[in-house]
Amino acid sequence: MAATSGTVRRLVAGLLVATMLLTLPPSWQNVGAIAVGAFAPDSCSRTGDLRATTCRLVPGQVVDDVLANGEATMYRLDVLMPNSRIDLVLTGDPGTTISALDWRGDEVASTTHTDADTHLTTIFGLPGVYGVRLVSSDPSASPAFHLLPNLQGTWASTTVVWPPSQDPADDRLSGERHVIRPPRGGTASGGVAIARALGAPPAAEVADFTLVTDVRIDQIVGPSGLTVRFRYEPEAGGGSGYLLTLDPFAGESYLDSFEEGRRRPVVGRTRLPVELADLTPRRLILQASGPDLMASLDGQELLRASDSRYPRGLIAVGAVTWSDPVGVIFDHLLVLTPLL
Question: Is 3 exposed, middle or buried (0-12, 13-18, 19+ CB in 10 A)?
Fold first, then answer.
């Protein structure tokens, strides 16, 4: 009976998704290149979560700062290439502990500064946003420090096309977080799916790209999921392109192509390698290089395919629900393209 019920649910969900509506934002945003890594100490934050307003470390530029009594100082490092090697050189007053953090806030590497120059060296296997935290071992002290970040493998062969460029004076990146909450499936208030395009055509159309984002589901009580449309052409009748869907309720992912409302599977349902419904940020990476398509979650492969039907188009992140409302957060959103 359980197997039959699950099969019926999947059939119903498939029919609903096949007819879901794509809701684009009322106004398109222009896309431009961005100088990732701008450090604006007078306008950025050194505490809390890693956000667009967190002070950034710029490779090759020294940061001079003072730790507040008993408080940690957080910096942000944007890594654009996989397997990038970071060497953080810390000098100044002894007793300061420096740590590298991943997108979940977990410590990757750590060391404590003594009298000599201290090096914290590690390799970031995945592109995306990371944290660098400094804290004094003496809660009553306010030590001064000098931090020099050296990062190899980040700038050589990639260009950032999302988020769109902003005034570097305010150190904010509009568009790097999307919170999407579609209404209850089948209600009169809207369709069962919402998607937000990352920029307007033709400037935002890309061929080969890497999308990096830290995803979270902050509300899930029934069948629902997150979606990424890519190489997407928003034409009449639903457009064309590819649709990646992650369904945390079923614990599955799949990849379809679509054209004028008709869909066909490219990769069938595969099990998610990690839990996606526990509020823990998971790093989703989607890559398209020629006909080769690949997606991973926290560095573990979701699916891989070869399909050359759609070579270029937009990217749209979204959410879909087949039951109750759902909240999906796409954070630290980066779209990278090969340097021409």
Answer: exposed
Q: Which two tokens stand for residue 266?
A: 């490219």
In single-letter form, the type of residue at position 106 comes to D
Q: Which residue has the tokens 């997606």?
A: 295
Helix (H, G, I), strand (E, B) or coil at 143: coil
Q: Which residues contact 337 (CB under 8 A, 6 or more apart)?
A: 158, 159, 161, 206, 207, 208, 209, 210
CA-based torsion, 161, 281, 305, 6: positive or negative: negative
E strand or H helix at 255: strand 252-259
d(CA 67, CA 92): 11
Cα pseudo-dihedral 177, 183, 189, 193, rounded to 10: 70
User: How is 271-300 classified by DSSP, letter by letter?
Assistant: E-SS--SSS--EEEEEEEETTEEEEEETTE
How many residues does this entry show for the chain? 340
Q: Could you tell me where the DSSP H helices lie in the chain?
A: 2-18
Q: State in Å, rounded, how far the first CA of the chain is from the last one.
A: 56
The backbone torsions φ and ψ at residue 335, rounded to the nearest 5 degrees and listed phi first, read -120, 120
Please tell me the pTM assigned to this model: 0.83
Distance from C-alpha of 198 to C-alpha of 180, rounded to nearest angstrom: 14
Tokens of 335: 């779209």
Residues 6+ apart with CB under 8 A from 117: 89, 90, 91
What is the per-residue pLDDT across 289-324, written as a single tens digit (0 to 9) for each?
999 999 999 999 999 999 999 999 999 999 988 777
Residue 149 β-bridge partners: 88
Closest CA to 226 of 242, 198, 246: 246
CA atoms within 13 A on the CB side of 210: 19
- pLDDT 10s digits, 80-133: 999 999 999 999 888 899 999 999 999 999 999 887 789 999 999 999 999 999
Tokens 């701008």 belong to which residue?
Answer: 38
**Cα 339 to chain centroid, rounded:** 20
